[in-house]
Write a structure and sequence with these properties.
Length: 78
């Protein structure tokens, strides 16, 4: 998979969450909170598992779900 936000290559939301879980389990980070972007155009449980959502009509728009992890590095000075 290509890296970067401006690529057309995206993994599923479940794959992203699984990768974040592995990263957190193998790090010594202190997790403060984990967030996902809330999208107003998800109308079904199936849509909630998609990482990229397209809306259409007179004007099309694309929405992306991301996982954001707030953390502290133990021993790091503020």
């Amino acid at each position: 998979m290509k890296a970067g936000f401006f690529t057309n290559d995206h993994e599923s939301m479940s794959a992203t969450v699984a990768r974040a879980n592995v990263w957190l389990a193998t790090s010594e980070l202190k997790v403060i909170t984990i967030e996902t972007v809330v999208l107003p155009n998800i109308s079904s449980e199936t849509g909630a598992s998609q990482s990229s959502i397209r809306t259409s009509g007179e004007i099309s728009s694309f929405w992306h779900q991301v996982v954001r992890v707030w953390y502290e590095v133990p021993g790091a000075s503020a």
